[in-house]
Design goal:
Order of helices and strands: EEEEEEHEEHEHEEHEHEEEE
Largest sheet: 7 strands, antiparallel
Oligomer: single chain
Number of helices: 5
Structural class: alpha/beta
Strand order of the largest sheet: 4-3-7-1-2-6-5
CATH architecture of the domain at 2-93: Beta Barrel
């Protein structure tokens, strides 16, 4: 059973959802997600669950946290739910980020709500003594304030970009990363809009930088049955992979992205 303990607005139409659970089939890892049924009181509208990447996980408190933005009917319903509401939740699901970067130079590049899954990852990397540089971009400063406060609690260098005003720079997360990139990192992780990921991937591969991306796809079932989140790979056989099972985390250059 999952029960809402926090569902509060932390930015413009951006909410922090914290759930208390009784038990989990396995410990969630950074990059994985949960599928949440947002329809309530015997309703099947909306029918499909909504996937939410893990923002943070606290095993000692039996607590898992998500950050979401109200963009449609499902998230609008979710934003109205009160503390104590029980939710029908599946997870953790998907393939996580790799965590084998002890004592390495790591860059995290997040755009918009793609910033959310990078925080739990950053906490894990910090415990591995990784040297973290965090590049965050969004439409405006108000969308970044909550994330800036959270990442500032970690031992990392934080740089911010906004499309509407100058922070570290005025522009995208990619513009920010390229502007501040002085030394090639050992590894990068990135999450955000697919066009941003495509551009990050192109620049990284051009500079022989290795890393992983987490892609944002519509996941109808979350368990690989409906195939709605299939994406074409760059392997010779071009066999499709499902973002909800083989992903949502992929190596740079592994899948075809919308440019």
């Amino acid at each position: 059973m999952f029960k809402i303990i926090t569902n509060e607005e932390v930015g413009p139409d951006i909410f922090k959802l914290a759930l208390k659970y009784d038990q989990l089939p396995q410990k969630p890892e950074p990059g994985q997600f949960f599928n949440i049924k947002v329809s309530q009181e015997l309703s099947d509208d909306p029918l499909l669950r909504r996937p939410f990447s893990i923002f943070d996980f606290k095993s000692e408190e039996k607590r898992v946290e998500f950050i979401y933005k109200v963009v449609g009917k499902g998230t609008k319903i979710l934003s109205k739910l009160k503390n104590g509401t029980e939710l029908d939740v599946l997870g953790p699901l998907g393939s996580p980020f790799s965590l084998n970067n002890m004592n390495k130079e790591i860059n995290l590049i997040g755009g918009g709500m793609g910033i959310a899954p990078l925080f739990y990852l950053a906490r894990k990397l910090e415990k591995q003594n990784a040297a973290l540089k965090v590049y965050l971009g969004a439409a405006d400063k108000s969308e970044l304030k909550f994330f800036e406060n959270k990442f500032s609690q970690l031992k990392s260098e934080i740089y911010l970009a906004s499309m509407s005003e100058e922070l570290t720079i005025q522009g995208t997360a990619l513009d920010l990363w390229l502007k501040k990139l002085e030394k090639k990192p050992d590894f990068i992780y990135s999450c955000g809009p697919e066009k941003m990921l495509s551009a990050v991937e192109k620049e990284a591969l051009r500079n022989n930088i290795i890393g992983e991306i987490s892609i944002e796809k519509r996941m109808g079932c979350g368990i690989g049955v409906c195939l709605s989140c299939s994406c074409e790979t760059k392997t010779e056989d071009k066999k499709n992979k499902r973002a909800c099972v083989e992903g949502p985390v992929f190596e740079l250059g592994e899948v075809v992205l919308d440019a």
